[in-house]
């Protein structure tokens, strides 16, 4: 049986447009999915939108449209941009879809019947802005906005009873919460006694939600509803075979939603007797020009700004930058200058030049046909064995989500091919010895081909341009074999893959 890989992003709220943050998580998921497809695994990549709750209700009222119309409009923006930049999600789930609501209701009914959900009166602090009940201590710390005193009857999920079991699971499974700093953060949080989770809102206060199947005066709390998407999308309780084909998942999230994913969600699954996710990986925060992104500071990287960058360099190069410099482990700073620097040095200089050099020499001196490989010297053997080592390293780094390190290694290898050419000087030797120069060009091109194969998940359309002119009939299974480059094949003319940017003009 094939290995499986089920990867998810958070479901983005429809009260904001896509921006560099949601873009980053989704690109990361796309690239992981693509590498796993390369390993011929059974891959399922899910993303979508989170559409219930107070904020949507308020925003739609303000705009004089129905909440559903509001959701349709904003959700479409996410689907549009993901398509525009060539992401390959297998599914896009919306929490207002029937397939999702049905599973949420089924789980609520099951848990209510099992006595895992009870009704109780709450008197205490409530943050209207965050839509959360908070403790006296949290109130005193003052980190929540629009806090008021309320007294309300609601339904509660017995989350507290799973505290010890959850701690044990986190301690016994090192890969469950990653990276380690986030794991420690969750364990720290679990040192205080866990409360039961309020999972309803009275309709008198909020009507835009999934009605509780056992009490029509209430709707489901938006987080309890939204988290269930990860299993409703793969047909939990509808088609067991399908569900088991993909579950458990790897959840990619930002550090802002650590508690909901690492505490609420696993305890909900425990109550339903469902296996816990394989991994929850929480990345850091994109900052912008040294500060927290904000519309009022004018440093917010919104959809228009993203489209502008894509317009300048193409989506592939932008993805490359975000993944290489992104906030995988700690926060990262986005700066325009840094972006064009990385573009020029890695893509225009290292990769782009290498392609040009090799293609030019082959077109001019070998009638556009890939030269024959003759006797390999130590340096060619080294390039070849390094391509094998690199491939292994890439797939092993993948297990730890180190996409940044993957790109570092690949570009280092590309530099080493350039260095090899500088040592061999084929542009000089070609005038006197076509045969040995042919071996040099074959070797450089074979190495470059492996590097582009490994870059494919990050820059699919650019690398396809390269494969097309190379005309080697490559398939994903053979692309990573150095000697898979066919001698005598005719290569086509290539346009500059990554034209250089004039930094003075840009800045
Ligand atoms: O929290 N840097 O949705 P959301 C990096 N609907 N990533 C960022 C970011 C930044 N500056 N800003 C946002 C929700 N993100 C809930 C989730 S899941 C069942 C429900 C990314 O629209 C990051 O992935 O606020 C973060 O976790 C997510 O956007 C939050 O998206």
Task: Annotate the secondary structure layout.
Blueprint: E1 4-13, H1 20-38, E2 42-50, H2 54-63, H3 67-84, E3 91-94, H4 98-113, E4 117-127, E5 132-134, H5 136-141, E6 147-157, H6 163-172, E7 177-178, H7 180-189, E8 197-198, E9 200-202, E10 211-212, E11 215-220, H8 222-227, H9 229-232, H10 240-246, E12 250-254, H11 258-271, E13 279-283, E14 286-288, E15 291-292, H12 303-313, H13 315-325, E16 332-334, H14 336-365, H15 378-399, H16 403-424, H17 426-429, H18 434-455, H19 460-470, H20 503-506
Parallel strand pairs: 1-2, 1-12, 2-3, 7-13, 12-13, 14-16
Antiparallel strand pairs: 4-5, 4-6, 6-8, 9-11, 10-11, 14-15
This protein binds ligand ME8.
